[in-house]
Request: fold
Amino acid sequence: MGLFDTFFSSVTGGSREPQKPSNIELELRRRLTVLASDEATQDTPLRYFLHWTGQVQGVGFRFTNTNLAQARALTGWVRNMEDGSVEMEIQGAPANILSHLEALHASYERMGTRFRLADAQARAPLTNEDGFSPRY
Reply:
């Protein structure tokens, strides 16, 4: 058991229920899974605007998203909003976006950080964007 796990086990009495994705995120994951499994669309770049709420500021959320996106060859940006939420646009192959979402939850699950996808909107892919970066 690691340091974080030991700490949170003592705080929570050893039982922490994993966070369940919002209905919006479940629908997005379903769509991405279908597109990723279809040979006609599996390599087609998609772009989404995502709006996250919950514990998303002060926990490294922008930088975690940046690292996860860069590791999956995704492009886009992420920024903190004045209301405490986080907005981002993410672009890439459906399987890579899906992998990003799964890894994001896995990164915060053991720390008990709670966040939810409050909005997801498809956007037109950009052809001239390089990399993924935090915005200020």
Summary: The chain is about 40% helix and 25% strand. Residues 18-123 form a domain with the Alpha-Beta Plaits fold (CATH 3.30.70.100). Residues 94-109 form the longest helix (16 residues).
